[in-house]
Amino acid sequence: MFSKILIANRGEIACRVIKTARRMGIKTVAVYSEADAAALHVEMADEKVLIGPAPSAQSYLVADRIIEACKRTGAQAVHPGYGFLSEKAEFCEALKANGITFIGPDVRAIAAMGDKIESKKLAHAAGVSTVPGYLGVIPDEDDAVRIAKDIGYPVMIKASAGGGGKGMRVAWNDDQAREGFRSARNEARSSFADDRVFVEKYIEQPRHIEIQVLGDAFGNTLYLGERECSIQRRHQKVIEEAPSPFIDPETRKAMGEQAVALAKAVEYKSAGTVEFIVDANRNFYFLEMNTRLQVEHPVTELVVGLDLVEQMIRVAAGEKLKLQQSDITLNGWSIEARVYAEDPTRGFLPSTGRLTRYVPPAEDAHTRVDTGVYDGGEISMFYDPMIAKLISRGADRNSAIHHMREALDKFQIRGVAHNISFLSALMNHSRFVEGRLTTNFIAEEFPDGFHGLSLDTDTNERLMAVAASVQRKVEERAATISGQLPGARHKVARDWVVRTERTNHPCTIDSVDDGYDVVLGGKRFEVRSDWEIGQPLWNGTVNYRPLSIQLDRTGTGYRLIHAGAEMKAQVLSPRAAQLADLMPVKLPPDMSKFLLSPMPGLLARVAVEVGQEVKAGQELAVVEAMKMENLLRAEQDGKVAKIHAAPGSSLAVDQIIIEFA
């Protein structure tokens, strides 16, 4: 067994590998860029090595610096995590040439499966079901359109070296095929330094199901059940679960056996994933094989009872698998939600900045948090905006959903925008609960984007009752402050008004032994909690029903967050509420004649000129952020009056790019 390994990655996956290595008694080396000097994985590791500037192309993607770090520290092996160099055959080969073990499959498997075109040919030869398509390299837009017509719309245009949703576009007509070819090629060149793309038939109403495989150097290969990864946005997975609510035992066995056949065809050793597209009739087609650990591996770990990182390390060290296929059983259900620094109400645009508060829910038998950040840490513009992976486990799917909802309610993040409200919306969506999933779920259920959640009347009233009880506790503390002048002591009133969205809700509040009784709108609410002033999380019961609320003080009021929805409430005296009604409403400035940058990023190109007439829907500019191209289009007809930013400029959020007459 190795005595020291280096993790050629960052963020949550580096922290995840360090935890297992530490449990196995293996020392760890972290590599880091200048932007990650204070990162959590650097703090957790036994040793650390600086490998370059912030851009990954100058640090985490430079194989020579990783190898040099191994030599300097005496690391015998490298775990690549996912992304970066994890699926680069050249990196694996270079490590081998320097006597360093790669914790993953060998060069042949990586090379064969890393090229989507060649991997489909190999899968077909191994007897694996494949999607109809054109597997040759497409030279230009005209050929892309011709091939798409031959296959029949809709088609998927994909980067051959792609992954993580980058370099992928769906086209339903000739114009979309041209634009999709161009964008997929640009993203592929930027992300993978390989602009080859291919076209295949797009399966309508598809599910994305993947099979976890595990092999050793002795010819033993197992499949560890499936993961349902259909909840995606722009081909990026958002929610994953194991097992799938759709796959029956017969289909699971057939998919698993095909996945094993493919793995054996390339003599696969280590953990890997074979991805399939599954239609409404459970027909399944090979999509790709990821020759690395998947982001969503924890859900498999929790239902199978294996540490996949440990298995990877043991296989790389030359050990034989101690399991047979008959030993693999699925126990319970697990769901993973990816918590990102992004604003779901602004088209899921990435957010960067400092985490002024970061308090994940406590880990227990039902909740796991894989994270690479900490309270006061920073979300950098240079890397993926993932904050954490929140994983729940239950005896069945409904139980896992319940525990996920509770954990999301308790996940406190401030300082950057985040997607917890959207994740809560998914967990509470009737179609998700019923398991009626496809990769089109988000596009179909949120066709106009996500605009936040609203509370039902009952929950709304319960939150107002909590706000009232919180204010009463604050008033009681104020009454106990020493040094108050005689005749001017602070008095605790019984009558109050909870004010939400300029609407007044009169109430009475009475203190009782274990909390407060609030009468609001003629209804009685028994509010019970051991909450103390200043705590950001209110846990308790309202009318004997459990409730978890994130609570922020906002000037003269409170912001209450529950089930992904937000309420802003003031608790005022009746006279103050009357005066509040007289206050004018401040209207936001009219910015309709400006094109603003919706995110921090690089202005890749401007598609219009000063004086040009533009039509609604026309492309205006492209902003690149997190290696993704974001097309900005005109919302209405107009004329370009001034261009405020030139291509190549670094943009801040809401920075003006174009002004219209």
From TrEMBL:
Start and end residues of each ATP-grasp domain: 120-317
Alphabetically ordered keywords of this record: ATP-binding, Biotin, Ligase, Lipid degradation, Lipid metabolism, Magnesium, Manganese, Metal-binding, Nucleotide-binding
Species the sequence originates in: Skermanella cutis
InterPro entries named among the record's database cross-references: ATP-grasp, BC-like_N, Biotin_BS, Biotin_carboxylase_complex, Biotin_carboxylation_dom, Biotin_COase_C, Biotin_lipoyl, CPAse_ATP-bd
Pathway: Metabolic intermediate metabolism; propanoyl-CoA degradation; succinyl-CoA from propanoyl-CoA: step 1/3
Catalytic activity: propanoyl-CoA + hydrogencarbonate + ATP = (S)-methylmalonyl-CoA + ADP + phosphate + H(+)
Protein name according to UniProt: propionyl-CoA carboxylase
Known cofactor(s): biotin
